[in-house]
């Protein structure tokens, strides 16, 4: 596996999965630009990962297409282009059909924002590019009535993977989803992260998910397109 000279935009840290993905991208010879609304977090990530390769960051909201274009353009300028995109954001609001208070916020954060970033990134992505959309296994594997709006948009993201893969196939751009389980959010470079979980554990280090993402960005996985991969170590089978 190699991402040598590949330029990767990682939009959203998402429980440090984005941080771990940037780490593996750098170790595989690529460059990365991370983006979120919170500059203090981005500064820390860049300082932590700079010893491993070229990493840049751009602070900005992407709640409109115009704002997303600004963020993507700045990342592209810093990296000299964009070859691949990883996009996914963090945030859960518990609600139900009796009080769907989180619906608008969840749609904006988990559907509209990724769509804005993907649309803006198409100005740079081309033949051989890959888009990885991150989502939670909740709403894909089984519904969560106590998190109605969140589960709803996760199911929507899963369908978005298929729709975009079909639409972008003619441009030779792959679209894949990763539906991950719970995340142990601590990330430390170069640690023995595989010792921190076992198959069937209820949660896993961000490195477990980031390793899958990095592989999906590599040409070895080129025949995987338009599908959502479930990654929870088999925990769902224990419930």
Question: Can you describe this structure in just a few lines?
Answer:
With about 240 residues, the protein is an alpha/beta fold. The chain has six helices and nine strands, in the order βαβαβαβαβαβββαβ.
Produce the secondary structure layout.
Layout: E1 7-11, H1 17-27, E2 31-36, H2 39-49, E3 55-59, H3 65-79, E4 84-87, H4 103-121, E5 130-136, H5 148-168, E6 174-180, E7 182-183, E8 203-204, H6 206-217, E9 228-231
Parallel strand pairs: 1-2, 1-4, 2-3, 4-5, 5-6, 6-9, 7-8
Helix pairs in contact: 1-6, 3-4, 4-5
N-C termini distance: 34 Å
Low-confidence stretches: none
The name of the CATH superfamily reads: NAD(P)-binding Rossmann-like Domain
CATH top level class name: Alpha Beta
Strand content: 15-25%
CATH topology: Rossmann fold
> How many structural domains?
1
The level of helicity is: 25-40%
Instruction: Please provide the count of β strands.
Output: 9
Q: Specify the oligomeric state.
A: single chain
Please report the number of helical segments: 6
Mean pLDDT: 95
Outline: globular
Secondary structure category:
alpha/beta
- Largest sheet at a glance? 7 strands, parallel
Radius of gyration: 17 Å
Q: What order do the helices and strands follow?
A: EHEHEHEHEHEEEHE
Architecture in CATH?
3-Layer(aba) Sandwich
Give the strand order of the largest sheet, numbering strands 1, 2, ... along the chain.
Answer: 3-2-1-4-5-6-9
């Amino acid at each position: 596996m190699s991402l040598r000279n590949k330029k990767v935009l990682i939009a959203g840290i998402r429980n440090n999965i984005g941080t771990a993905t940037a780490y593996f991208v750098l170790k595989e010879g690529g460059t990365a630009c991370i983006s979120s609304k919170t500059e203090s977090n981005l500064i820390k990530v860049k300082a932590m990962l700079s010893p491993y390769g070229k990493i840049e960051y751009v602070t900005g909201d992407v709640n409109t297409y115009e704002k997303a274009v600004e963020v993507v353009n700045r990342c592209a300028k810093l990296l000299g282009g964009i070859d691949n995109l990883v996009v996914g954001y963090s945030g859960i609001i518990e609600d139900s059909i009796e009080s769907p208070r989180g619906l608008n916020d969840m749609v904006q954060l988990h559907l509209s924002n990724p769509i804005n970033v993907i649309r803006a990134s198409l100005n740079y992505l081309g033949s051989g590019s890959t888009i990885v959309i991150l989502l939670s296994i909740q709403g894909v594997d089984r519904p969560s009535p106590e998190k109605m709006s969140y589960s709803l948009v996760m199911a929507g993201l899963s369908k978005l993977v298929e729709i975009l893969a079909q639409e972008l196939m003619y441009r030779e751009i792959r679209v894949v989803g990763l539906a991950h389980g719970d995340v142990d959010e601590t990330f430390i470079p170069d640690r023995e992260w595989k010792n921190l979980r076992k198959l069937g554990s209820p949660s896993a280090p961000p490195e477990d998910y980031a390793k899958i993402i990095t592989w999906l960005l590599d040409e070895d996985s080129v025949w995987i397109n338009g599908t959502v991969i479930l990654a929870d170590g088999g925990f769902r089978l224990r419930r």
